[in-house]
Recover the amino acids of this structure.
């Protein structure tokens, strides 16, 4: 018994910093949940072609604004069965309002099949494949319904995950580089350089963020292609986020600028670059990672809001904001509330990042553990 | 104190000057100008504008002059005559187009701030005092949710549920009978009846943040010696709570009032667009899309002005509340 205890202690004392962080992080249940959800999202974003039954732009002929398919777990006799089946829809004219409506077609029941062969795709642009996670043999299945152009909302949401997450990550990377440069230079050199950058940050903060970036985003010419717009959006998002990061990095650098090991490095003749990158950054990189995680939700929310207003990404690119834009019209959401479903992804992503960020913040703080 | 206020005032004026430059750069960014855009719009509607018409338009609005010339003319007009230029789209002075909208935006922002603090401060105190109870957990959860739902989505959801279940739309700012009526108490009350939805939507994110800050600071302060000392002197109950730890915990709240206001003004255009509130937000969006540059620029300047003045007021508030700042003592 005693040796086990000692072993645990020995393991604790010899663990690396990252191992300690991971052990502390593991204790936060919510953070683990968040991390799981995020991993699923990332897998979606990596292989959307596999998870989505259709491509983002494929139209199901006539099924405009078709409601989500009903899934039942019934066998032919009406008893319970593990194999899910879906009902099809047929269009009927409502006798009172005389509008065409979708009615569940009890006679058209199809088994929902997994790992079916469907539309051909190229994974990462070169790996050919045709297996999709689920599908039906005849016709179409729309688990989350279709939009105004008869496109499958589930497939579109899965594809949108890729652009929304990637644009967030790229935006964050740009924000991080600017923040590191400005915060680093400002904290390390101090004096008038510091003063200048401090005033600059304060100044940028005094202009309301969204209206400012709405103005910049609106300046993108209409005739730019989707790729250019995507690229510009990452830059805009990067510029939204850098001020907070720069502030944090600056204060971190100031707090260790006069530490003995930095002075020692200086006396040894190390260059400024070497001191910043080899000696300073490793001491606070964990805090910076925490800050990055915490700022990620901001990136997603900014992208979604700008695209929602029609100033961000534009079709044919699909992102969460672009998808929600079609739910902007009150009529469309009252008559077809399933257009809202992509919002769940946005909320889940932001929530998970907040949980993971909070967990990481506690885990990265060496003083949080009382032992 | 006077010196402190004067310094802040000077900084404010310099900031405003730089803001005007940045705003002008932004409205100058899009390639082409209003005349080209107008011609393209007409062309898509089936009318064609001749080249000389376009040139005439450019001449009339001074679009042929150099950037510097236009900037200084614009600024000089604002400073000397309070003339913010002409809106191309409405063909009227910018200030007339904006009109009441400034009042609406200001009302909305103030109401939102009021809501935020009225909701957040009691809940923050409650959560800290009843740490790890059901109520604390519930508020923390709602707070997380509030932080993660984009404001426009919340607005859309409210719109959806109100339309679906009460069959009345909560969008807009006035009931039909007050739409064009002159200002009166009844009209003001009617506006309050509509505007609160937007205010609540905008307040949610800020509320969640303030609850978290207040809870954390209060938990830190609660166990400090000066609280124990007060307890030992026989102070108890509400007096103890409100006179000692809460007073200290209010400082970070007051110092972020400016940021709070900035966040509200930053988020309000999107919410106003969704809830069709005729304030500066929707006008800003349409003016951006049609390159109505002086209108867009003026709106952006006003929004920045509100933020800057808000920050200034919060600095003064902080100085009143905290003697260390008032007397210029370095902490």
């Amino acid at each position: 018994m005693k040796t086990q205890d000692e072993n645990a202690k020995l393991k604790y004392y010899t663990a690396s910093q990252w191992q300690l962080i991971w052990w502390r992080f593991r204790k936060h249940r919510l953070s683990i949940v968040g991390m799981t959800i995020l991993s699923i999202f990332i897998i979606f974003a990596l292989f959307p072609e596999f998870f989505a039954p259709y491509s983002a732009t494929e139209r199901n002929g006539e099924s405009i604004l078709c409601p989500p398919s009903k899934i039942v777990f019934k066998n032919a006799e009406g008893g319970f069965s593990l194999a899910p089946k879906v009902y099809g829809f047929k269009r009927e004219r409502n006798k009172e309002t005389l509008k065409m409506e979708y009615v569940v077609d009890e006679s058209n029941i199809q088994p929902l099949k997994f790992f079916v062969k469907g539309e051909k795709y190229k994974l990462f642009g070169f790996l050919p494949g045709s297996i999709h996670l689920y599908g039906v043999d005849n016709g179409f299945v729309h688990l989350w319904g279709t939009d105004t152009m008869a496109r499958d909302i589930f497939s579109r949401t899965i594809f949108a995950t890729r652009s929304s997450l990637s644009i967030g990550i790229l935006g964050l990377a740009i924000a991080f580089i600017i923040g590191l440069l400005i915060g680093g230079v400002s904290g390390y050199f101090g004096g008038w350089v510091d003063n200048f950058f401090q005033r600059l940050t304060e100044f940028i903060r005094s202009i309301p963020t969204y209206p400012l970036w709405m103005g910049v985003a609106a300046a993108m010419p209409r005739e730019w292609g989707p790729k250019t717009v995507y690229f510009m959006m990452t830059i805009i998002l990067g510029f939204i986020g850098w001020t907070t990061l720069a502030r944090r990095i600056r204060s971190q650098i100031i707090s260790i600028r006069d530490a003995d090991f930095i002075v020692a490095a200086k006396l040894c003749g190390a260059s400024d670059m070497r001191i910043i990158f080899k000696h300073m950054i490793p001491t606070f990189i964990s805090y910076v990672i925490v800050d990055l995680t915490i700022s990620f939700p901001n990136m997603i929310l900014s992208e979604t809001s700008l695209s929602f207003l029609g100033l961000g990404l534009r079709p044919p690119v699909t992102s969460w904001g672009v998808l929600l834009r079609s739910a902007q019209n009150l009529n469309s959401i009252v008559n077809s509330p399933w257009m809202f479903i992509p919002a769940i992804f946005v909320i889940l992503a932001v929530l998970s990042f907040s949980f993971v960020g909070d967990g990481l913040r506690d885990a990265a703080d060496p003083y949080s553990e009382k032992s | 104190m006077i010196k402190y206020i004067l310094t802040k005032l000077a900084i404010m004026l310099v900031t405003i000057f730089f803001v005007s430059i940045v705003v002008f750069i932004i409205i100058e960014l899009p390639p082409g100008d209003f005349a080209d855009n107008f011609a393209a719009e007409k062309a898509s509607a089936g009318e064609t504008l001749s080249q000389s018409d376009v040139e005439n338009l450019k001449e009339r609005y001074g679009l042929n002059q150099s950037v510097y010339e236009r900037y200084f003319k614009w600024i000089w007009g604002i400073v000397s005559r309070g003339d913010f230029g002409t809106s191309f789209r409405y063909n009227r002075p910018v200030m007339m187009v904006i009109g009441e909208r400034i009042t609406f935006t200001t009302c909305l922002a103030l109401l939102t701030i009021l809501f935020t603090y009225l909701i957040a401060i009691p809940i923050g105190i409650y959560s800290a005092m009843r740490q790890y109870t059901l109520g604390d957990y519930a508020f923390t959860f709602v707070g997380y949710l509030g932080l993660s739902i984009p404001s426009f989505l919340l607005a859309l959801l409210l719109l959806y549920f109100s339309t679906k279940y009460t069959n009345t739309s909560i969008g807009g700012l006035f009931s039909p009978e007050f739409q064009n009526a002159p200002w009166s108490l009844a009209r003001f009350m009617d506006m309050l009846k509509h505007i609160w939805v937007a205010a609540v939507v905008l307040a949610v994110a800020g509320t969640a943040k303030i609850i978290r800050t207040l809870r954390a600071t209060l938990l830190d302060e609660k166990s400090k010696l000066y609280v124990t000392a007060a307890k030992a002197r026989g102070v108890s109950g509400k007096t103890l709570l409100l006179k000692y730890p809460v007073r200290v915990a209010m400082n970070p709240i007051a110092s972020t009032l400016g940021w709070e206001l900035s966040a509200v003004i930053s988020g309000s255009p999107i919410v106003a667009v969704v809830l069709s509130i005729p304030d500066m937000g929707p006008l800003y969006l349409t003016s951006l899309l049609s390159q109505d540059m002086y209108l867009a620029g003026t709106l952006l300047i006003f929004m920045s002005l509100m933020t800057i003045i808000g920050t200034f007021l919060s600095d003064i508030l902080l100085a009143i509340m905290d003697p260390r700042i008032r007397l210029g003592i370095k902490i």
